[in-house]
From TrEMBL:
The chain crosses the membrane at residues 146-167, 179-200, 271-292. The gene is FSF1. Pfam families: SFXNs (PF03820). This is Sidoreflexin. Its main location: mitochondrion. It comes from Komagataella pastoris (Yeast). GO terms for molecular function: monoatomic ion transmembrane transporter activity. It is a multi-pass membrane protein.
Length: 327
């Protein structure tokens, strides 16, 4: 994010009002736009230079060119380190990176092996995205990463296989109801494992705290309470993000298979499934991402006592600080 670029002059968080939900929706639509992946390394460096010039007083006001530079950095670089996030794990790649594994998980009639394969693939992608975008106050060791990954995969596979075994036995339900429940099994597995994944991968943040910053971007200390807010909201956002993408397409597909797709080949049904997932992701993802702000302000009274009487570089008492929630 552009906030990682150093300089004494604070950068506007967005051209939209991030205190409102619709403002955050418009902002998230910009940084999750897949066209941002087309920016080259030279574009990123040019954007860094422009933002640095603004934050150091060489440019006096925001211009359309500066807003685009900020958008490039918000969708490309890590907010804590300022380093470029690997392309498949950027926010702007979210739809494309998740498209294949989501389509795989939502494929009707998967057997046990297929279910296991796609759940492992999904958790592998989740772990990679977590590592690339998490708050960097306390990076995990290789051993911790392997342990957490193993537990997350175990949770997702256990839920998926368990529900796939249970749903067909619910003879008291109508066949159509059992079919719909079966199509929603991947959603239950992804949500449960996603929450486990977040708390496992970011447990060190809760134990040790995350960095909080004043309005000028200066690090003012570590806060465990801020970490709890950050990780808790990220876990909730995983549920919110997954709900439309993993619920709407399979339900529409069930309806289409009784009408337009009835009797059609596997290829056409698969193409339709992928199209539904892609369209839903592009339309709905910004609304899901916008539920919680990415860079969030919090009143110092909600944090540890050591933050209650802090002052900024100008000697003014700090009433609020901010932290990076992570994704």
């Amino acid at each position: 994010m552009a906030s990682a670029i150093p300089g004494p002059i604070p950068l506007p968080q967005s051209r939209y009002d991030l205190n409102t939900y619709m403002g955050r929706v418009k902002h998230c639509a910009g940084i999750s736009d897949p066209s941002m992946l087309l920016n080259s390394s030279a574009d990123v460096e040019t954007a860094k230079t422009l933002i640095s010039d603004f934050k150091n007083g060489k440019i006096k006001q925001m211009t359309p060119e500066l807003w685009r530079a900020k958008r490039i950095l918000d969708s490309t670089i890590h907010p804590d380190t300022g380093e470029t996030v690997l392309l498949p794990f950027r926010m702007s790649s979210c739809v494309l990176s998740n498209l294949v594994v989501t389509a795989g998980m939502l494929t009707p009639g998967l057997g046990s092996i297929g279910t296991l394969f796609w759940q492992v693939a999904n958790q592998s992608l989740n772990v990679a995205i977590n590592i690339a975008n998490s708050n960097k106050s306390h990076p995990l060791s290789t051993r911790q990463l392997i342990t957490n990954y193993t537990l997350a995969v175990t949770a997702s596979c256990s839920v998926a296989l368990g529900l796939n075994s249970i749903v067909p036995r619910l003879k008291s339900l109508a066949p159509n109801t059992r079919m719909i429940l079966g199509r929603l099994v991947p959603f239950a597995a992804v949500v449960s494992a996603g929450v486990v994944n977040v708390f496992l991968m970011r447990g060190e943040e809760i134990k040790k705290g995350i960095s909080v910053f004043d309005q000028d971007g200066n690090d003012v200390g570590l806060s465990k309470k801020a970490a709890f807010y950050a990780v808790g909201e990220t876990a909730a956002s995983r549920v919110i993000n997954a709900t439309p993408i993993m619920v709407i397409p399979p339900l529409i597909l069930v309806k289409l298979q009784k009408g337009f797709l009835k009797g059609k080949g596997v290829g056409i049904q698969t193409f339709t499934n992928i199209g539904l997932i892609c369209a839903t992701s592009l339309v709905v993802l910004p609304f899901a991402l916008a539920v919680f702000p990415q860079r969030q302000q919090i009143h110092v009274s909600k944090l540890e006592e050591k933050f209650h009487n802090l002052t900024d570089s100008r000697g003014n008492k700090l009433d609020t600080v901010e932290f990076n929630r992570g994704i």
